Amino acid sequence: MLTLDRVQVYIGIGSVDMRKSIDGLSLLVSQQWSLDLFTGHMFAFTNRRRTVVKVLYWDSNGFALWQKRLDKDRFKWPESREEVMRIGHREFRWLLEGLDIRVHQGHAELHYSAVA
Description:
Strand content: 25-35%
Number of strands: 5
Strand order of the largest sheet: 4-3-2-1-5
Shape: globular
């Protein structure tokens, strides 16, 4: 099941051939992006037309692959000089809802280790 709470999402900035499945996408993450597939983080990809998103992640005992295809409109996929961009779960939800994450920005998360 796709749960977004407390995970990082790595999104590929360019387009990916959507015929790729778990094996092809996992090779892209580990070899081209040099990222660890087994962290529980999610790795998102889109096609050239920005109408399909695939999400790959390790789910305790195997890989899971999730896909969303839009019937109308396009995802507002960010652009960057980097090959891969790390975003939070909130931003990824916004992206799936059609918001431009370059424009919308929520409050920063705070992490404390003690109460003052």
